[in-house]
Amino acid sequence: MSATTRKRRWLTICAITASAALVAIPAGAAPGRGSSPFGARALQQLAAERAQSVGAVTPKVTAEDDGGDDGNEADEIAEGADQYAEARTSPGVVAPGAYGAAWNSLANLPSTGGSWRNITDLPYNSDDARYRDYDSNSSGGSGNVTGRLAAMAADSGGYVYAGSAGGGVWRSRSGGGHWQPISDKLSSQSTGALALDGSGRLWLGTGEANTNADAYLGSGVYVLSDPRHGTFSSRSRVGGDELESTTIHQLRFGGGKVWAATSEGVWSHSTKTLGGAWKLEFAPNPDYLPGGSLAGDASAPYKNITNDIAIDPKNPAKVVLAVGWRSGDDYNGFYARASHGTWTRITSGLGDLPSDPDNVGDVTFARSADGSRYYAIDQSPEQLNTNPDSGLEGIYVSKSGSPTGPWTKVADYQQLAADGSALTSSGYMPGVQAWYNQFLTVDPANAEHVYAGLEEVYETKDGGSTWSTVGPYWNFGFSCWSIDPAKQTGDCNQTTHSDQHGVAIGSYHGKSYVYVGNDGGAYKRPVSGAQDSSGHATDWTSLNDGTIDTLQYYSVGIGKDRTYGGVSVTGGLQDNGQSILRSNDKVMGSNFGGDGGDTLTDPANGCNIAEEYVYLSVQVTQNCAVNDGSWVTDPSKVTSYNVAPADNATSEARFIAPLATDMKNSSTWIAGGRHVWVQTHGYAIRSGDEWTSVRDLGAGRTATAVAASGGKVYAAWCGPCNNQGFARGISVGNADGTGWHDINLPATGTGGAVPNRYLSGFAIDPKNASHVFLEVNGFSRHWTEGPGAGVGHVFESIDGGTTWKDISANLPDVPTNSAVVTANGGLAVATDLGVVYRAPGRVTWQRVAQLPAVAVLQLKLSPDGATLYAATHGRGIYTIKVRDCG
């Protein structure tokens, strides 16, 4: 296997482990469909691929690393694990303040009439018994879900606060449920940390710090003095703009200060006086910070990552910093302040807790309320690189209560796997995603009662001597599981969704609960809850009642509902499969599992659906994937089919790869990987062999957008796609394979210049296939430090792409993701901060009504063209009448 292939395989695994929910093999798998009834979601497949990838990356990030023909290998890891971010950063580094400036610019645009309506603000049941077809995860046991929650906080009066990855902060007054958003006025809806201080104030650190595929930078730290009643506003920001355009991993309190572990070092601020600047306490590589001599270096975003702060409860002046990039760097380690005031690395005396850079990665601390214990989770860069089973170094306790130790290891991945875990397959065991999944908390009433979160939720009641997997990854593979449609998850109890991020302990009506936040939303159980004989909790409750909608859509599809009338709406989601909302539904169901990428829905029949998993793995159904699960014993009853083009098998497609139908013929599909693929059997396709390659974009290139009308096809590509030699282009040709050519696309010059940035979408005029609009992601050269970044986000061609004109005009300088041409000739554009519209005959843009500062990744029109649908990556799906847009 070549170095390039090894790296590509590693990127595949990094990205999947950031967001995919995969399924183990139940008994009675259908023959002839591979080893698992869940196709691309097979855990064993992922485990095998990860084992194959081990050794393909180096544990150290250094400026001298040479990744061969794809550029710096360490940067490949970083960029590959967040291809989502590539679109917004390449060809260079984005300067701080870009999103804040864009939000202000958007707020100053004239606004259209009308208002958006959220159509996904109802329960979303991942175990909906209607949809237990071959490619569904229904019956896994997660129940009602919503989008990823990155942080949790709770008090003693039943108030619970949930911070989402991209949909803001939410409040419950009833111990969970009946949620209300409380941060919609902020320019960032991405949560990194939530914390209640001793005075009951709620602190919010914006910018999710999970270093995953779709995390957004934040706009700083905010505080809410009366969190039970108030809402966050720009006036509640603490300090100045020092923490804008960072991610914040943790907020900790001690010695009259709040400490922030950020992507640009550790900072502190007085908790009494909220004005004035933040103080930079420690940055391991200050030359790489904004304004430093190496700020423009490609590795700058990874050179000052800090993860947590441990403050000695007996002496608040004694502070330990956990510092380091998950994939490894020479600066990784623990630091303490020496007597002369400078921070120095701790090189000995920690006991079992490692001090060498190779084994200190992402770290989370937690201390007991009585000060007698400190606990820590440590992810190891070396394990990440060399161990196919897990990246977890261990869980540790300091029985002295001091963060300087000595520390004793109380768990490793093998022990956790043996304690009721669902992750017992070689290649995918507890902590395999420890760089992405971590939380830790101690029962305030018992210093030896601890909850730890990785992919699963673990509990110890004796300080770590024994552990139970109280929240297994899912129930597949357990003897209690069955696909019985009369039950949620066979005879198993409900579990939580996988991939844990936030935790809090609070009380409601005098009873203590633990609240966890993960890729499926919020769950709770009594702090001292019940367990079955396997150690699995019997008393989890999903808090995702439909009032909290933080669903992270990549796509949306709309078709006529021939059974119930109206329309059926589907959409692909981060780690929550594909949702389906029939016209008579009061609860959404999930008809495909794992990650849902792009989606195709037949406008004439909403039960004809194609759903992309990741890397161009495509499943198709012609009955909405309605199935009672009887296919497990009778394979002929399978009604969804894997029809992936060949680029899926060779890993030559992007994590979320483009998929489209011809605007004039819904039976002609276009898919983009290294090749442009066409198939003409529509939803009757049953095999990946039915695709034909009509264009090879070239080695190292992958499609970023495709569109077609009347047989004319447009395909945008990048390669390399990161900021190491970033290149982009457009190929145009016909669906029958004729007439293909690359367009001359200059990035500079007068007239016709298109920026050298990620090309994210096409919108074809339904009346003229040669009239097309191009959407360009990233930021213009004012913010992007990279070659040919140029200016502009929307371009128009009237000659089939031969020449282009910048029509951005007063459009805010913000990444644009997709667009649609309305029936009257207007143009609606989806951006990272909402939707804008250019009315027919106009040259300037308006903001379409009011949405929070949430990314809109895709726009689609209803079959009659009267309604605009917006797939947001953090606040569900919204609709508005086209007549209200202009």
Please tell me about this protein's structure.
There is one protein chain. The protein is mostly beta strands and 886 residues long. 8% of the residues lie in helices and 32% in strands. A five-stranded mixed β-sheet has the order 3-34-33-32-31, with no helix packed on it. A hairpin with a 2-residue loop joins strand 39 and strand 40. The longest helix has 17 residues, at 3-19. It is globular and about 75 Å long. Residues 1-47 and 55-81 have low confidence and may be disordered.
Catalogue the unreliable spans. 1-47, 55-81
Strand content bin: 25-35%
User: What is the rounded distance between the termini?
Assistant: 54 Å
Biggest β-sheet strands, sense, barrel = 5 strands, mixed
Strand runs, count: 58
- Overall pLDDT: 89
| Shape category | globular
Tell me the helix content: under 10%
The number of helices is: 8
Radius of gyration: 25 Å
What's the arrangement of strands in the largest beta sheet?
A: 3-34-33-32-31
Write a concise keyword list for the protein shown above.
single chain, 886 residues, mainly beta, 4-stranded antiparallel beta sheet, 8 helices, 58 strands
List the helices and strands and how they pair.
Elements (H helix, E strand, L loop, with lengths): L2 H17 L23 H11 L19 H9 L1 H7 L3 E2 L3 H10 L9 E2 L5 E2 L23 E6 L5 E5 L4 E4 L7 E2 L9 E6 L5 E5 L14 E4 L23 E7 L2 E6 L2 E6 L8 E4 L23 E6 L7 E5 L9 E5 L5 E3 L17 E5 L6 E6 L1 H6 L5 E7 L8 E5 L1 H5 L21 E4 L7 E4 L3 E4 L7 E4 L28 E9 L2 E8 L2 E6 L14 E2 L14 E4 L6 E6 L5 E4 L6 E5 L6 E4 L2 E8 L5 E4 L18 E3 L3 H4 L9 E4 L2 E8 L2 E5 L12 E5 L5 E8 L2 E7 L9 E7 L6 E2 L16 E7 L2 E9 L7 E2 L8 E4 L7 E2 L9 E6 L5 E5 L2 E5 L7 E2 L8 E6 L5 E6 L4 E5 L5
Parallel strand pairs: 3-34
Antiparallel strand pairs: 1-49, 2-58, 4-5, 5-6, 6-7, 8-9, 9-10, 11-12, 12-13, 13-14, 15-16, 16-17, 17-18, 19-20, 20-21, 21-22, 23-24, 24-25, 25-26, 27-28, 28-29, 29-30, 31-32, 32-33, 33-34, 35-36, 36-37, 37-38, 39-40, 40-41, 41-42, 43-44, 44-45, 45-46, 47-48, 48-50, 50-51, 52-53, 53-54, 54-55, ...
Helix pairs in contact: 1-2, 1-3
